[in-house]
Design brief:
2 domains; 235 residues; 8 strands; 4-stranded parallel β-sheet; Rossmann fold
Length: 235
């Protein structure tokens, strides 16, 4: 029987950030269990190859009777055709009989929930990968008023960046017409700068990980409000 106090997380093999940020935010009674899909460089070919491993990783996590499973990689979904998040979710849920949260879909849901129709986006990705993600957001009904990227393909390098890099990148965005800011990428360390960005910008700020955490808590039925990481978690 699924235990709502156990959460499964699937991350790329080179991800060294998402598990830490999840454990930092999740209530103490909720245990995190993770599995991995092989990927070192954020390129279309490696992302497609990695995605094929998601099913087996999800099945392994379901053996632990987790209450929900998170597919923790935004760009693996947003680099594909529009609506791919639903294809993956249905495939994994069918195989595991467990609620599955796709991080990319959680981002879309969180932005809608926070009324972020016009968005400014910061990513660590290369130009081509970032533009694929921007196109995904536009086709999902969002207006992207500005975006900035770091141009990094090496996923491990992204995870080793100090959080101030994400902060400085977001500060470069033109947010004059934006409803909010998205710091995209589960591997980009940013959890501790989001609240500061919100206060300084007077805009809603979410990241891949806070959107995913919000969706996790909602899915398992937790009503806890968590302060210090942006309005999405404290609302």
């Amino acid at each position: 029987m699924a235990d709502k106090n156990r959460v499964g997380l699937i991350v790329p093999s080179s991800n060294i950030n998402m598990e830490d940020e999840f454990r930092m935010v999740l209530p103490k009674e909720i245990k995190l269990h993770s599995d991995r899909m092989r990927m070192r460089r954020v390129t279309p070919s490696e992302l497609k190859s990695m995605d094929k491993e998601a099913l087996n990783a999800a099945v392994r996590l379901s053996d632990a009777d987790v209450g929900a499973i998170v597919y923790g990689c935004t760009i693996a979904i947003t680099s594909r055709k529009q609506g791919y998040h639903e294809i993956v979710r249905k495939r994994l849920e069918h195989a595991t009989h467990t609620k599955v949260i796709i991080s990319a879909a959680a981002v879309l849901d969180a932005m809608r929930y926070m009324n972020m129709r016009k968005i400014a986006v910061a990513t660590p990705y290369t130009k081509a990968v970032t533009e694929a993600e921007i196109d995904y957001f536009k086709k999902a009904g969002f207006e992207v008023v500005d975006y900035k990227y770091l141009g990094i393909a090496d996923n491990l390098k992204v995870g080793n960046l100090p959080e101030e890099i994400a902060y400085k990148l977001a500060k470069k965005l033109d947010i004059s017409e934006a409803d909010g800011i998205l710091v995209s990428c589960a591997e980009l360390p940013s959890i501790n700068i989001l609240d500061r960005l919100e206060k300084e910008s007077k805009k809603t700020v979410i990241s891949t990980n806070t959107a995913s955490l919000w969706k996790v808590l909602k899915t398992i039925g937790s009503k806890k409000k968590i302060n210090g990481f942006g309005k999405i978690l404290s609302r």
